[in-house]
TrEMBL record:
It is an enzyme of class 3 (hydrolase). Its EC number is 3.2.1.21. It comes from the Bacteria. PANTHER family: GLYCOSYL HYDROLASE (PTHR10353), LP05116P (PTHR10353:SF36). Substrate binds at residues 22, 123, 175, 307, 428, 435-436. It comes from Streptomyces longispororuber. GO terms for molecular function: beta-glucosidase activity. It catalyses: Hydrolysis of terminal, non-reducing beta-D-glucosyl residues with release of beta-D-glucose. This is Beta-glucosidase. Belongs to the glycosyl hydrolase 1 family. GO terms for biological process: cellulose catabolic process. The keyword Nucleotidyltransferase does not apply. One of its GO terms (cellular component) is cytosol.
Length: 485
């Protein structure tokens, strides 16, 4: 008889994730200055409904309550990010003590509840001053397309490590540098909203450099037990057909979505096909000798963020709408490939983001990383789904999310069976929050947030996930699992 439950290894981390700008609010408190996301969200037309992160989930004031929620759900890990402009308002110079104190108190509260903190240094909130001078401010930085930003990041990493290195063991340099580079500087749907393909590729390189310099700064400041990694959002990219033309489209997107980061970070190289495909956009002269030794640092883990796969075919000339899930823009986030690749919707039911549900993509990526980075432990640092959650009678019933989570956790389990060394899973997200260009309309939380009252209501998926975390096992199939959720 087959076992009705899928067991996860002992010590597997059951976590939830958030990011500073998406939950904190308190944007003008204790010396914090604007980040590129403050500027962007306050620019009319950039975020749906004109939403901003000014208040968000008011986590800056409600963090104790939010840690209590994690503890009540029995989660063993929490992934959060540090707001750079809270700690180093202009992106240069000494740290602001009150900024560091906020994160120290948060970490201590987590540790007091036996929850492992996983700290991300950069989840997209670049100090505005490093992008362009603040009114009356210092030198204009130019943002990620400029090399200096990578050095500024390494300095910031050292400041945070110096303050929290005695209590945080799990450190992540960057979250999803693909989004920072190609949505921020290519398609412009993310801050700072620039639409310059050459700048996007420069940004990608300087993010790689920032990662490498950041790892070096962390190693210098952290005790030996600390573990350092990065969270990427690799694309599980499939060809529409096995034709040579569609396989070539797949190769192009694999280069621009995946290998542009894993090349420098894992192998110390930009692949020749990537350089050739983008030769009409840039000559890559911004890659200095020695950079690729810096970007390739030994890593203690790799973080995989996964939501949905991509399906591509060959195209010649600008096609119709791109079903790549990356938001509406007249500008492609794929430098050199925008007119040559068409994106198709993968089969499967859609979440509220219109992202097809396909857990196989997660298993494929975990196996791919297992092959590419042998011996490096993996974490799923984000996975989850937005649905149209509505409270009814004081409760939020979200069976679609339970099915999404069940399918993806089963995929993680399958990857474990096939030899992937997956050490933990961080569900995106603990709370409904500011979903970037979509504002508050898209709810990814395990916990429902009423933005008028800031009341938090755990959804039925939270109770379901709590049982998975408590037992360390997953029912083989739904829906009979755990009656009552
Ligand atoms: C990730 N895309 O964002 C982020 O790390 C989270 O902050 C975010 O809330 C979550 O996924 C859900 O979206 C992404 O357009 C934003 O492909 C956009 C894309 C991918 C990831």
């Amino acid at each position: 008889m087959t076992d009705a439950r899928l067991r996860f290894p002992p010590g597997f981390l059951w976590g939830a994730a958030t990011a500073a700008y998406q939950i904190e609010g308190g944007v003008r408190e204790d010396g914090r200055t604007p980040s590129i996301w403050d500027t962007f969200s306050h620019t009319p037309g950039k975020v749906l409904g004109g939403d901003t992160g000014d208040v968000a989930c008011d986590h800056y004031h409600r963090w104790r309550e939010d840690v209590r929620l994690l503890a009540e759900l029995g989660l063993t890990a929490y992934r959060f990010s540090v707001s750079w402009p809270r700690v180093q308002p202009t992106g240069r110079g000494p740290a602001v003590q009150r900024g560091l104190d906020f994160y120290r108190a948060l970490v201590d509260e987590l540790l007091a509840h036996g929850i492992t903190p996983a700290l991300t240094l950069y989840h997209w909130d670049l100090p505005q001053e490093l992008e362009s001078a603040l009114p009356g401010g210092g030198p204009a930085g130019g943002g990620w397309p400029e090399r200096d930003t990578a050095y500024r990041f390494a300095e910031f990493a050292g400041l945070v490590a110096g303050a929290l290195g005695d209590r945080v063991e799990m450190w992540t340099t960057l979250n999803e540098p693909w989004c920072s580079a190609f949505l921020g500087y290519g398609s412009g749907v993310h801050a700072p909203g620039r639409t310059d393909p050459a700048a996007a590729l420069r940004a990608a390189h300087h993010l790689n450099l920032a990662h490498g310099l950041g790892v070096q700064a962390l190693r210098a400041a952290l005790p030996a037990r600390a573990r350092v990694g990065v969270s990427l959002n690799p694309s599980a990219v499939r060809p529409l057909t096995p034709s040579p033309a569609d396989l070539d489209a797949r190769r192009r997107i694999d280069a621009l979505a995946n290998r542009v980061f894993t090349g420098p970070m894992l192998r110390g190289t930009y692949d020749d096909d990537l350089l050739a495909d983008t030769a009409g956009v840039t000559d890559w002269a911004f890659v200095h000798g020695g950079d690729l030794d810096v970007t390739r640092q030994p890593l203690d883990f790799l973080g995989v963020n996964y939501y949905t796969p991509a399906v591509v075919s060959a195209a010649d000339g600008p096609g119709g709408p791109r079903h790549d899930g990356h938001g509406a823009s007249a500008h492609s986030p794929w430098p050199g490939a925008g007119d040559r690749v068409a994106f198709h919707r993968a089969p499967g039911e859609l979440t509220a983001m219109d992202w097809p549900v396909d857990p196989t993509g997660l298993k494929d990526l975990l196996m791919e990383y297992t092959a590419q980075a042998p011996g490096v432990p993996l974490y799923v640092t984000e996975n989850g789904a937005a649905y149209e959650d509505k409270p009814e009678g004081g409760a939020v019933h979200d069976p679609d999310r339970v099915r999404y989570l069940h399918g993806h956790l089963a995929a993680v389990h399958q990857a474990l069976l096939e030899g992937a060394d997956v050490r933990g899973y961080f569900l995106w997200s603990l709370l409904d929050n500011f979903e970037w260009a979509y504002g508050y309309g898209k709810r990814f939380g395990l916990v429902y947030v009423d933005y008028d009252t800031q009341e938090r209501t755990p959804k039925s998926s939270a109770r379901w996930y709590a049982k998975v975390a408590a037992s360390g096992e997953l029912p083989r199939s739904l829906p009979e699992a755990w009656p009552g959720v």
